[in-house]
Amino acid sequence: MKAKILALDTSTEFCSAALMIDGEVLFSGEVAPREHTTKILPMVDKLLVDAGVKLTDLDALAFGRGPGSFTGVRIGIGIAQGLAFGADLPMLGVSTLQAMAQGAYRVQGATHVAAAIDARMSEVYWARYSRLASGKWQTQDAECVVPPQQLAEQELENSQVENSQIWAQVGTGWDAYADEFKALKLQRSQTGVLYPESQDIVVLAQHELEAGHQMSAEQASPVYLRDKVAWKKLPGRE
């Protein structure tokens, strides 16, 4: 089934929207820190006009569910929910870390990807993925928020992948913590993929839709990974 899916993402400095129609992807995006609220809806409107479709013609609306910037993730899911409510569309949440893995495949054909987004506070949002023949991604290291030096110090848990495997690195975390990552015992290659992009989210969303993982707008929720840290910042919380 080739569905009509709109995807948007504002979880990092990069703001983007993409529209998949019959397997073809239209895309718009740019690095626009603190301008997501003014940029994203015009991008969506232009994509719909260029494709000659209305929001109500679509099958689903996908969004980058995080992890990423607290504010950015909230903006993205809020706008996505508003659009989905108005057009009565189901929603599809896609991991921003996995979206970057898909980006590495799109750019370089990479099938083993290590993703690290700068999470500030001397930590990264981290995950590793391997691409299956079906086009889906198998998680090797589950999403987490972790100090990069801890990754370097601990043995990587997955024993199914040989240590000789070269991992394509994606995300802003690698440059932000270059010194800490030097000790990480992974053979790595550069990809140039720094941010999750909706043109990759929409491809992953197609798999989610086929698997029946759609949800209502009321059920859509973000993934922060650092909920407990935010909670502890409040006086008297533990």
TrEMBL record:
| Compartments, as annotated in UniProt | Cytoplasm
A biological process (GO) of this protein is: tRNA threonylcarbamoyladenosine modification
Listed Pfam families: TsaD
Task: Tell me which GO cellular component terms the UniProt record holds.
Answer: cytosol
Question: Could you tell me the keywords of this UniProt record?
Answer: Cytoplasm, tRNA processing
What is the species listed in this Swiss-Prot or TrEMBL entry?
Answer: Vibrio halioticoli NBRC 102217
Q: List the InterPro entries.
A: ATPase_NBD, Gcp-like_dom, T6A_TsaB
Similarity field: Belongs to the KAE1 / TsaD family. TsaB subfamily.
Q: What is this protein called?
A: tRNA threonylcarbamoyladenosine biosynthesis protein TsaB
Q: Which residues form the Gcp-like domain?
A: 30-232
**CDD domains, alphabetized:** ASKHA_NBD_TsaB (cd24032)
Predominant place of localization? cytoplasm
Q: Which NCBIfam families match?
A: T6A_YeaZ (TIGR03725)
